[in-house]
């Protein structure tokens, strides 16, 4: 496995945004846990929501005195094709993990299991790729937690029955939403912890309006005309093709509108480039439709600028574990038109800070309404930022994790109830 270097972050720096009371609670929660050694393990150091979560969380855990490392498992192309299929199946796709695929999955996990796990008191394993590790490490000293970031509300039964035995080896699990907890997964501890964003990161910190305009112009967009944007992986569950169709409906009534689709290609997502090419073909030749990826020099600062330049953010997901790009858009004061799926409804409060939609036609209708009603658009954007400030900043995420660590270390192997740590209101 390969270690990811993460700079240490000071929780005090977040006080102006999260509040002094939050910082004091975090200090108090961390005090009894100082010196506890934690490892996080996932499948990539670049691209996707898990990476966005781990950088600030690991940095802040180190900052409050809990030594925390981040490791990335190594795998083959064949392995990542299997795990992408597993990811799709766990979100309900009609796929099969056959015998050879199961063997490929196990072989890579066996290779990654040869590691000094006893150096850590708590090991947190993220998503399906390294999920087998807990079952492969004998006589482990620490406590192990599986962190599921995907929409597990309606899994493919065959894929779920294949991976579930691996999960029973864990001391607990974390899910983003309560409906993702499967009734036949019996673990000592289950926590509900929605993801969060780092408001001080390059992707989310304030930018000078002049810089925002310069970046938008550099990539060919006109800052004087309406801009609609979706920022996400190029993935069928994110429905970029549906976003293009909705844009075309809006453009019939508002010829001046522009659409931007932008995403990064994660190293653990072999389908990304295939669906990127499919999106390009679906878009065709349209000078007002921009499709960008990291190969175009898109980094966090550019994404930040695009989200701030957009009049409306779309996240038309068909399945969505949580949707951090929704959080990012709301934080920047932009209303979001989001698919009524997964974690989007606890972020997008329909009619208050954006709209929830079920179809291309609804997406087009709500987007057009927002573009044509600038006062309501501004009001909704302000409500969205406040909703994120109260519920979805990394300080809340850190607080929830510290509570979980305390419960995990204090309880015997069989702890009592499944308890959610957070409920949005």
Question: If you had to describe this structure to a student in words, what would you say it looks like?
Answer:
The chain is built from 15 helices and 13 strands. It is an alpha/beta fold and 425 residues long. The protein folds into 2 domains: 213 residues, Glycogen Phosphorylase B (Rossmann fold, 3-Layer(aba) Sandwich), CATH 3.40.50; 183 residues, Rossmann fold (3-Layer(aba) Sandwich). The strands form 2 sheets. Strands 1-3-2-4-5-6-7 form a 7-stranded mixed sheet, covered by helices on one side. Strands 10-9-8-11-12-13 form a 6-stranded parallel sheet, with helices on both faces. Strand 8, helix 9 and strand 9 form a beta-alpha-beta unit. The two termini are 40 Å apart. The C terminus is likely disordered.
The order of strands across the largest sheet is 1-3-2-4-5-6-7
User: For the record, what is the CATH homologous superfamily label of the largest domain?
Assistant: Glycogen Phosphorylase B
CATH topology assignment of the largest domain: Rossmann fold
Determine the N-to-C terminus distance: 40 Å
**CATH top level class name of the largest domain:** Alpha Beta
Count of spatially separate domains: 2
Q: Low-confidence stretches at least 5 residues in length (pLDDT < 50)? A: 413-425
What proportion of the residues form beta strands (DSSP E)? 5-15%
What CATH architecture of the largest domain would you give? Answer: 3-Layer(aba) Sandwich
* Helical fraction: 40-55%
* Secondary-structure content class: alpha/beta
Q: How would you characterize the largest beta sheet? A: 7 strands, mixed
């Amino acid at each position: 496995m390969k270690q990811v270097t993460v700079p240490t972050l000071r929780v005090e720096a977040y006080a102006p945004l999260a509040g002094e009371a939050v910082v004091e609670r975090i200090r108090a929660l961390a005090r009894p846990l100082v010196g506890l050694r934690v490892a996080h393990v996932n499948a990539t150091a670049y691209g996707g929501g898990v990476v966005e979560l781990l950088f600030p969380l690991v940095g802040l855990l180190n900052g409050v005195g809990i030594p925390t490392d981040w490791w990335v498992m190594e795998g083959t192309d064949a392995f990542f094709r299997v795990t992408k299929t597993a990811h799709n199946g766990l979100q309900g796709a009609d796929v099969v993990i056959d015998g050879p695929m199961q063997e490929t999955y196990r072989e890579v996990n066996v290779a990654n299991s040869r590691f000094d796990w006893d150096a850590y008191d708590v090991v947190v394993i993220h998503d399906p790729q390294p999920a087998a590790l807990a079952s492969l490490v004998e006589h482990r000293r620490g406590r192990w937690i599986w962190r599921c970031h995907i929409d597990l509300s309606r899994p493919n039964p065959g894929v779920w029955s294949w991976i579930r035995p691996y999960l029973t080896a864990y001391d607990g699990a974390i899910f983003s939403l309560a409906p993702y907890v499967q009734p036949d997964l019996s673990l000592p501890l289950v926590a509900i912890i929605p993801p969060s964003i780092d408001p001080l990161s390059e992707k989310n910190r304030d930018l000078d309006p002049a810089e925002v305009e310069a970046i938008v112009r550099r990539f060919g967009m006109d800052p004087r005309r309406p801009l609609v944007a979706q920022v996400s992986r190029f993935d069928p569950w994110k429905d970029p093709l549906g976003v293009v169709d909705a844009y075309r409906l809006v453009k019939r009534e508002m010829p001046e509108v522009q659409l931007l689709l932008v995403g990064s290609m994660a190293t653990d997502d072999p389908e990304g480039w295939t669906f990127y090419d499919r999106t390009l073909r679906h878009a065709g030749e349209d000078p007002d439709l921009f499709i960008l990826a990291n190969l175009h020099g898109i980094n966090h600062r550019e994404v930040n600028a695009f989200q701030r330049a957009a009049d409306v953010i779309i996240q038309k997901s068909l399945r969505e574990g949580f949707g951090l790009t929704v959080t990012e858009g709301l934080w920047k004061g932009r209303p979001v038109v989001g698919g009524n799926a997964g974690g989007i409804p606890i972020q997008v409060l329909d009619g208050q800070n954006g709209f929830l939609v079920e179809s291309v036609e609804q997406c087009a209708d709500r987007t057009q309404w927002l573009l044509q009603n600038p006062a309501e658009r501004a009001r909704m954007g302000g409500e969205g930022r406040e909703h994120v400030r109260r519920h979805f900043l990394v300080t809340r995420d850190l607080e929830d994790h510290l509570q979980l660590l305390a419960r995990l270390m204090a309880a015997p192997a069989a702890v009592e109830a499944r308890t959610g740590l957070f409920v949005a209101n």
